[in-house]
Amino acid sequence: MDAVASGGAWSPSAVGFAGWAFDPACGSASTPQYCINGWVYLIGVPLHAPRLVKNIAFYVPGYGGNTLGAASYAGLYTSAGVRVGVTASLNTLIPKTEGQTVICPLTVHYNAAPGNYWVGLVINGPNPTNGGPAFLRGASVGQAPGGSARMPGYFVRHGRLGVTGQTSLPTNFNPTVANTVVADSNAIWAALS
What we know:
The chain has no helices and ten strands. It is an all-beta fold. Strand 4 and strand 5 form a beta hairpin.
């Protein structure tokens, strides 16, 4: 798809990524996402060609540091809900920053076929209203902004698992079971490389 991107459109590969949730230039400048402890956020990333995925990337517009607990992780899931990659604890990967792309290596690289994937994200430790890290997010108007738009029964681009209080990422979940994946307004930006 990168090869046929329309003139003037930025593609993930133009800035070093295999795929992303959306063009980060479309992120909300005024409302970053702080994560609720123990929720597993799901961020959809399409891959249009086979890729060896080594890293998950987030843009962190601000983080005072030292609030993340060890039970904070990112991972990669297939559209069937199978975890195919996980990072080390994010408390060792996300530095104090006033804005940067944070690269989170997978513990084992994954040969990804074309398709839709989810980046899973679970945060524990900080105050969920301002304790950071803050994550770049997309549309944030209303309780269910446009980032959740899709036809019924299709891939949930921005969502979360219906369970709470998690201290790790599950090895799998069944997205076809009602209320397992909840469409959500938390349109966090993530990318794969």
